[in-house]
Amino acid sequence: MFRKLLCTLVTIITLSAWIVSHGGEVHASNATNDLSNVNYAEEVIYHIVTDRFKDGDPDNNPQGQLFSNGCSDLTKYCGGDWQGIIDEIESGYLPDMGITALWISPPVENVFDLHPEGFSSYHGYWARDFKKTNPFFGDFDDFSRLIETAHAHDIKVVIDFVPNHTSPVDIEDGALYDNGTLLGHYSTDANNYFYNYGGSDFSDYENSIYRNLYDLASLNQQHSFIDKYLKESIQLWLDTGIDGIRVDAVAHMPLGWQKAFISSVYDYNPVFTFGEWFTGAQGSNHYHHFVNNSGMSALDFRYAQVAQDVLRNQKGTMHDIYDMLASTQLDYERPQDQVTFIDNHDIDRFTVEGRDTRTTDIGLAFLLTSRGVPAIYYGTENYMTGKGDPGNRKMMESFDQTTTAYQVIQKLAPLRQENKAVAYGSTKERWINDDVLIYERSFNGDYLLVAINKNVNQAYTISGLLTEMPAQVYHDVLDSLLDGQSLAVKENGTVDSFLLGPGEVSVWQHISESGSAPVIGQVGPPMGKPGDAVKISGSGFGSEPGTVYFRDTKIDVLTWDDETIVITLPETLGGKAQISVTNSDGVTSNGYDFQLLTGKQESVRFVVDNAHTNYGENVYLVGNVPELGNWNPADAIGPMFNQVVYSYPTWYYDVSVPADTALEFKFIIVDGNGNVTWESGGNHNYRVTSGSTDTVRVSFRR
Description:
Blueprint: H1 2-10, E1 21-22, E2 25-26, H2 28-31, E3 45-47, H3 82-90, H4 93-97, E4 101-104, E5 108-110, E6 127-133, H5 140-152, E7 156-161, E8 165-168, E9 176-178, E10 181-184, H6 205-210, E11 216-218, H7 224-238, E12 244-247, H8 255-268, E13 272-275, H9 285-293, E14 297-298, H10 301-312, H11 318-331, E15 339-340, H12 358-369, E16 373-377, H13 388-391, H14 404-412, H15 415-418, H16 420-424, E17 426-432, E18 436-443, E19 446-453, E20 460-462, E21 472-474, E22 487-489, E23 498-500, E24 505-510, E25 519-524, E26 527-528, E27 533-539, E28 547-550, E29 553-560, E30 564-568, E31 575-582, E32 592-596, E33 601-609, E34 618-623, E35 651-658, E36 662-670, E37 676-678, E38 684-687, E39 694-699
Parallel strand pairs: 3-4, 3-16, 4-7, 7-12, 12-13, 13-14, 15-16, 26-32, 33-39
Antiparallel strand pairs: 1-2, 5-6, 8-11, 9-10, 17-18, 18-19, 19-24, 20-23, 21-22, 25-27, 27-30, 28-29, 28-31, 29-30, 31-32, 33-35, 34-36, 36-37, 36-38
Helix pairs in contact: 3-5, 7-8, 10-11, 10-12, 12-14
Cofactor: Ca(2+)
Family: Belongs to the glycosyl hydrolase 13 family.
Enzyme class: transferase
């Protein structure tokens, strides 16, 4: 507790570098930003579908066919609003659970008409005006009260944001408004505000990006006005005091534009940002590339799919669980930053009607003790059931604080801020069979040892268990809520054989007084440009300032304590490299990957004509700045696209590049064996504009 209090006190600082002017006003939130919202590894998120949580103000409910009294029709509005969330913060239901952040539905104005098939936009994903509130949730005064109430209870607020599209084209023709002023419709799109290439068949990455997601009117983010409009919109919501952003449908927008967009968020007011890329248990190359290069984290569907298969559906073994943890530790550059979950509004609820609820208790215990930023779906703590959309989006059924699941969250959620091993630790398997997994998480002297038996009908004898935790008797953190037991660790780390009961979960921990050496757990935001302030979290840095390096370049330090360092990014060659900390005793930490941008980012579409290739060959882009690979073919941008916006032999790609910068670039052709053929002649030249997207188009030089 002392360590947590000390860390909180020393991070309440003023960084005058964050004073930013917008619209002629100076935003005090930027002037006093202490970067407290960039690292969510120590947070526990509670995910609320706003319309389905609680009707706190019946006066703002829609009238007529949009509304379902009693929520008998799950495709209509049911009355949940921001006042309902405020009520359950003030009642103690949310704070007492131990959650530290709320993720709520998109707050913007949605279409007011029904879909031809009878659906309403209760979910918030059919935007009409990004600069106005959804009146059925409340007005800006209501939203401000939600922020103020949450913050008064040390709870952060994350909003869902949907820059990919407006609404289905069959509702108001995908209309887009700017604070009440109509900008355009999908079918009469004289300004090219939308992508009009038809619906996607999801056959490849390009098709998923530039064609409509189902019948939704896809916005043309590369259009300079739409780019400006979306940036203005998110800044408006940042000014309300939100603490994080979940970006919808990131698999369906250009990576280059999204990277520039997220960079603009970090320039304006840095908050934790994660995207939604619906993927299977194995992920994909495009998915992993996005997570590691976009500047944002991701909603970890890989984690959820495996957790549901093994723990909920009993279709796998605990070997599958550990294999997922081990593989993602390698696939993600920042595994601790990915947002994990066991159910949400896009997949089946974890609890199955008629089954033993102990399975849900086990799932929550696993979620809250394994790596990542855990997100708990509303109602899971009360064993709500439901398959698919909208069956998984029923009205909140109870605010019962006595369920076992609620108490599991209550006991385990605080560990994320008390024990660095939970927030940042690596994971090691200590004992495993098809039904049992015992894993140990460790970080610089802090430990968490978790034993899970997913079989609710059979006990197992655990023999030969080893741990790195110091010798002593450890009591179950859950206080036997899931039939846990104490554990006696001997001097050599061995443990006498014991019986792990049916459905038992035991959690043991050791928290050190301080780290023995400097170890970095997280750096946030995960990308930035020279002059930006960045926060390093971890332990063992020491009370006296030492030195921080990016590659071999020394970094200016703004604040320093044993667990938190705030630095100013240096003027040096950008790209990906490692940040490291050397304490005052000369001991150097681990290296932590960080993406240093050349400068403020803009999205530019690079187009090359007459680039003829043979079967199996692709065209890539490479140039003179890190954002273009620094002339290194291994870091080139691509493979470029050639089917939707332009057709072969014309190739194109949207790229995030430094504004107001003279670029030199070339195109290369890479065959299936990795052989590179460079474009002949001199370099192409282009100067990036500032404050706008752009397109540069050249012919391939044979």
